[in-house]
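STRUCTURE:
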């Protein structure tokens, strides 16, 4: 015979009820709305320098639609400004007051110097890229020069005093220098 005054009975009954409630919750599957797979991030890709070179060949015929398949950050407030991160050195900035037709500007920008950019519709993209690739090699040679001397000391201050102009140049890049150093070392 069941004794309803024993706590073990009530614990067992509560456990059965909770188990049934949890099972019902996990077994129910609400109907999902069909999703548009084209809007899925899996169908978007990052913009590359090769893409920029190819797109620049369209010249003044470039439109917002040409960039829809690439991932971007929306940074505008009042204007439509999209930033397409290409790599650590370059990004593409597109902006206008409307999202139809041809944008007001499409700038390929050097991330280490945001004032250094070109409009990909009218300027030579490949020479801009080559120019900045050479800058990277110069910066790397500066870094190699700094780390190879002075041979008499390993103190940070001695390296800085020995190569003050190179150190100042690297500091002028600001936050990008830190990102590079943390990524590489």
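SEQUENCE:
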């Amino acid at each position: 015979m069941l004794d309803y005054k024993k706590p073990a009975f009530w614990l067992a009954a509560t456990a059965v009820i909770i188990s049934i409630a949890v099972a019902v919750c996990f077994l129910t599957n609400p109907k999902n709305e069909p999703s548009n797979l084209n809007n899925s991030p899996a169908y978007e890709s990052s913009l590359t320098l090769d893409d920029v070179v190819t797109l620049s060949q369209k010249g003044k015929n470039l439109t917002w639609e040409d960039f829809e398949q690439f991932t971007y950050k929306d940074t505008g407030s009042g204007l439509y400004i999209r930033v397409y991160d290409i790599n650590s050195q370059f990004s593409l900035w597109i902006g206008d007051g409307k999202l139809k037709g041809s944008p007001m500007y499409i700038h390929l920008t050097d991330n280490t110097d945001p004032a250094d950019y070109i409009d990909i519709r009218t300027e030579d993209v490949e020479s801009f890229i080559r120019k900045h690739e050479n800058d990277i090699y110069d910066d790397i040679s500066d870094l190699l020069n700094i780390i190879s001397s002075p041979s008499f000391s390993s103190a940070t201050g001695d390296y800085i005093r020995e190569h003050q102009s190179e150190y100042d140049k690297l500091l002028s890049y600001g936050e990008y220098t830190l990102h590079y150093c943390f990524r590489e070392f």
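REMARK: Residues 107 and 119 are 5 Å apart (CA to CA).
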